Amino acid sequence: MKVLALCFLVLTLPFFACENLEDYQVTVEIAGDSGIAFTGWFITAYTGPDSTPANGTTPATWTVVVKRNAGDAISGGFLIDSLATGTMIGRLIADGDTVDADTTAANKPAFHMAWNPE
Predict the structure, then answer these.
(1) Model-level pTM?
(2) CB 58 within 8 A of CB 38
(3) What's the rounded Cα separation, in Å, for the pair 63 and 12?
(4) Quick one: 1 exposed, middle or buried, by C-beta within 10 A (0-12, 13-18, 19+)?
(5) Which tens digits make up the pLDDT trace of 36-87?
(6) 3-state secondary structure string, 30-47?
(7) Cα–Cα dist 6/52, whole Å
(8) Do β-strands 97-103 and 88-94 pair in parallel, antiparallel, or remain unpaired?
(9) Contact between residue 110 and residue 82 where contact means Cβ atoms under 8 Å apart
C-alpha cells in the first residue's frame, strides 16, 4: 500500500509542478450594447511596459499572456467614442474567472481595469 501511494505521488508531482509554471491566458473582453465604437489600450508589465492599442466596436476580445510568478500584471483603459451611445462592459478574465470588471454609464463614458496576480 505504501509503495502504491509513493508511486502515485511520484507520478502526480510533476503534473502539479508544471501546472504552477504556466502563464495566465487573460481575455480582455469588451461587450455591452452591440456596435458601440470605442478607443482604448491594455498594457502588461513583464520586462517593462508593453502597450497595445485596443480600438474597435463592441463586442471585442483580445487574449493576452500574463507571466506567472514574474511580477507581471495587466491594466487597460477604454473610452466610448463621443458619438456612440449605449452601455459598454469590460472584463478581464483569467483562467475562466473574472478578475476585474467595469461598465460605462450616462455620466461615465470610460473605465479602467487592472489585475495583478501576485
Answers:
(1) 0.78
(2) yes
(3) 30
(4) exposed
(5) 999 999 999 887 777 899 999 999 999 999 999 988 999 999 999 988 789 9
(6) EEECCCCEEEEEEEECCC
(7) 48
(8) antiparallel
(9) no
Cell of 118: 501576485
Closest Cα partner for 88 from 30, 27, 29, 28? 30
Closest CA to 37 of 114, 113, 104, 115: 104
Tens-digit pLDDT profile for residues 77-109: 999 998 878 999 999 999 999 999 999 998 999
Amino acid making up residue 29: E
Beta bridge partners of 62: 28
Nine cell digits for residue 34: 452591440
Distance of alpha carbon 103 from alpha carbon 38, whole angstroms: 13
Question: What's the CA gap between 37 and 76, in Å, rounded?
Answer: 16
